């Protein structure tokens, strides 16, 4: 082997071992859920090698010790739970238990709405956060809202939270990047829009950007035509009681979702 190949091998081997160790750590943090398939083995006890599936109750049945509650335990804690029962029952003096996750079904999160790859995704670690799952689903498409809705169950009660994703990074408020749980549904709705018509270059619906003003909305519509005038702007807006109001806005008023901006023709 040449000098350069030997040098490259010494560089790459530690990196490979580090990546493998990191992957094992993540797998160990995974919490078992209903439907997960596992393979349990005990060192020097081949008769205790079992393939099982976690029941809806979180229980599996294991030789010699019977029913064992493994639901919501990490793989390390599940290994310890089985080892303790084997030792306490006098079946194996110093059991070395290994659990391999062969199929993930229990701890999955559904990502729906305007994302690039909607679907169900497994929770790979015990501290998987909202942004991790959004990244797994390919992120929101351009028409997707910045505010994401998360629903699920927490402490046995229905849970619902709206999270402003860009604000997590702009304001640095990482506490809002919540840890997801099995059974959660992440939904990305369509971004709010406004409508502009009349004497503008490009009438139509447009996405509302943060803090967008009437003047910025006009620019988004391509600006005024030769016959348009800013003096005759009108906004048609639905009020809280469901009635339609017609407003004469100022240029720096903030556009609201579903506003209809009309630019009238100048007669002078």
Describe this protein's structure:
- It is rod-shaped and about 95 Å long.
- It has 3 domains: 73 residues, 2-Layer Sandwich (wza like fold), CATH 3.30.1950; 82 residues, Outer membrane lipoprotein wza domain like (Outer membrane lipoprotein wza fold like, Roll); 73 residues, Outer membrane lipoprotein wza domain like (Outer membrane lipoprotein wza fold like, Roll).
- A hairpin with a 3-residue loop joins strand 3 and strand 4.
- The chain contains 5 helices and 15 strands.
- By secondary structure, it is α+β, with helices and mostly antiparallel strands.
- This is Polysaccharide export protein EpsE.
- Its main location: membrane.
- It holds the Pfam family SLBB.
Properties at a glance:
rod-shaped, alpha+beta, Outer membrane lipoprotein wza fold like, wza like fold, Polysaccharide export protein EpsE, five-stranded mixed sheet, 3 domains, 268 residues, 5 helices, 36% strand
